[in-house]
Structure formats: structure tokens, C-alpha cells
Amino acid sequence: MGTLVKICGITNIADGLAAAEAGADMIGLMLYEQSPRYISVEKAVEIARALPPHVVKVGVFANPTEELVMRAISEVGVTLLQFHGDETPAFCRQFAAMTMKAFRIRDESSLEALPNYATDAYLLDAYSKSGLGGTGEKFNWDLAVEAQKFGKPIFLAGGLTPENVAEAVRQVRPFGVDVSSGVESAPGQKDHAKVKAFIQAVKAV
User: Is the entire prediction scored with pTM above 0.90?
Assistant: First the structure.
């Protein structure tokens, strides 16, 4: 099986359908109010309903309430929960859905927290002072290779673009790659040509 592609921060139906048509395996719906790509649960429902059933709908959260997560599962139909904040291992484990914990990687010590989380996968993103993901910054991919020793599927994020993602896939061999700002014309607005080029670059490796 090839590397999965997750297009994150989808804010409208047109961008979601373009990503699905281009071959995206997963779509990220940002349910974190402080993100420039935030959408309401109601908007997420609209987008999710328009997507083909084979595309995995991912709810992206940072320090959410239990109620918000439950609504995303029951109303939006997300089947993978991505936690980007300071959620505890116990918080992540309590829901009846697959889970992925995101870690902001600064150096080797950033990997120490990974084994504390019994989530289904780990997402490795670049540490940035400017925000929790979607910043377009990358980190040392050797650390992503090292993270595979923990035995969980690794999703690689942070600064990926249509130009560098093939190199990233060859070097890291991740289970999946995650892109947001690298395929945008503006925050929350996907450039459909870039989305297509990104997915084609991953699938060609």
C-alpha cells in the first residue's frame, strides 16, 4: 500500500471535492476555533456529506471539550480524531473512534512523549511559535524516521509542498502525509492545481 494523503484544513465543499477527485485518502476538518481554517460543526456536516464515502473524514481538535468531539463523531461522521493540543493520553483514549495525536517536533527530546499515547497513529509536525500546525515550517525528517521505532503509523506534516513531498516520502516512508498551507492560495483556500500536484507526487513514489 502506498503512502496515504491527508489534505487538511478544508473549509468548503468545492475544495473537499477537488481533493477527493485528485485522489486524497483523507480530509481534515478543523474544529479548533483559533485556527484560520476553523469551521463550525454545521459547516463540517455539509462538507462531509458532499464527500465520497471512501474518503476518511478527520476531525482536527486542540484542547476540545468532550461534547465537541462527540458531536463531530455523531453529527459530522468523523472516523478519525486528530488531537493537536495538550490532551492527556486518557482524554484521547475515551472516544469510540480511531485517534491520532499530533506532536510538535523541535528536536530529539520531542519524541519522548510519543510512547505515553496509545493512539492509533502519531502525526509529527514542525514546532512553531506562530501556531499549532498549518504554519508551513518543516523539521528534521530524520526524527520522523526515528519515531517509527515506537511501532505506530507515522503521519508526516510540516512544510510539505508539491515540490518536496516526494523526497519526504522517499526519506521517511511514512504511513501518511498531511498538508494544509503547502497547497493553499490563502489560509483556508486550497489551490486545486497544487492539491493535484501534491497527490500525484506522493502516489508516484
Answer: yes
